[in-house]
Amino acid sequence: MQRSPVVIIGAGQAGLAMSHCLAARGVAHVVLERGRIGERWRSERWDSLRLLTPNWMARLPGWSYRGAEPDGFMAAGEFARHLEAYAAAMRAPVEPGVTVQAVRRGPHGYRVATSRGLWEAEAVVIATGHCDRPAIPAWARALPAGIRQVTTADYRNPSQLPEGGVLVVGASASGVQLAEEIQRSGRQVHLSVGRHTRLPRHYRGRDIWHWLDRSGLLDERVTQVCDLLQARRQPSFQLVGRPEGGTIDLGTLQAEGVRLLGRASGAVGGVLQLEDGLRETVAAAQQVLLRLLARIDGIADAEGAPREPCAAPRIAAGAAPGSLDLAAEGIGSVVWAGGFRRDYRWLQVPVLDAGGEIIHRGGVTPEAGLFVLGLRFMRRRRSNLIDGVGQDAAELAEAILGHLVQPCRAAA
């Protein structure tokens, strides 16, 4: 059995940020990673994916982007190398190729069973992130066997899809990007639209993330929102990070020939059931967009930024069908882009709620010595962004240090 005061599970941006903050406080630890550093960025991303945030926002504790394109967007592989360089520079104690199989209470804290033996630790940090397992509805099993089903973790490029039309389910960041790419490949795309958040790529002379950063929106803390659960369920922004720039949203997709449908709610054989609420969903997203731009305008005016309208193509969201016959429409594949769920079956400590999510307060669970990092709106709105895990990690490192000094004390 190997021992370490702290075991960090996961060597993505959250785990490495945590490692840096613990090292800065002189806390010995180990980082266990099932694959390579930043494995999900290497093996669970499609070929054309780039970060949605500009390179200058790839900030981690003691580390920032050092390339020639601060306003560009790193490809997934580039970002994995960014993380690798970060880990090497701080000599992070990463153990690659170690799969965590179980975390249980032990006589001196926790026992972490792995594919390469047992670890004992006084504290454990779960840094596996918010994007764990693609969410697929149970009714997907009712679709005909001849329909090819892929998730955003499986999809690489349009060539892997069979001939025929494609149904993309989900219209947040991943859904709109894949809908555009597949439509441009020559296949007819049908996009099932649920709740979404529209944003222009650029506004008033700057990338939209400049204004989100300057407005203070990303730094809103959990105590500043009326409904934290609702805030954590907010869909990701409809953005694409591509060198040529440009906004992508339902209007641009519709102009390119993508067919917009209501939210998919079930299937009977090869017939998809659709909700009749597309017009209302689009209108709600537009209202959120206008409120956000009004908030940004106050900051932009103070900075003397040039005035400009938000030029977004009009969305023709008329009466949508109540069902979709996949065979009749020539649809041969479905791409699930409806978000992610967490899978904590290996966590054998009583900290999961009825939905299987970790119960925590700012990353501190009810079980002394067990922490979590990298979840959406964990302490502040930017918590699950690359640019946000560092601030949370620094605060959580203090809580971990307090636990190691006084193990029975409740961390705050």
Report on the architecture of this protein.
This protein has 412 residues and is of the alpha/beta class. The protein folds into 2 domains: 2-132 and 342-405, FAD/NAD(P)-binding domain, CATH 3.50.50; 136-336, FAD/NAD(P)-binding domain (3-Layer(bba) Sandwich). The chain is built from 9 helices and 21 strands. The strands form 6 sheets. Strands 1, 2, 3, 4, 5, 6 and 21 form a 7-stranded mixed beta sheet that branches. The protein has a 5-stranded parallel beta sheet with strand order 8-19-9-10-15. Strands 16-17-18 form a 3-stranded antiparallel beta sheet, with no helix packed on it. α1 crosses α9. It is globular and about 60 Å long. It starts with a strand and ends in a 7-residue tail after the last helix.
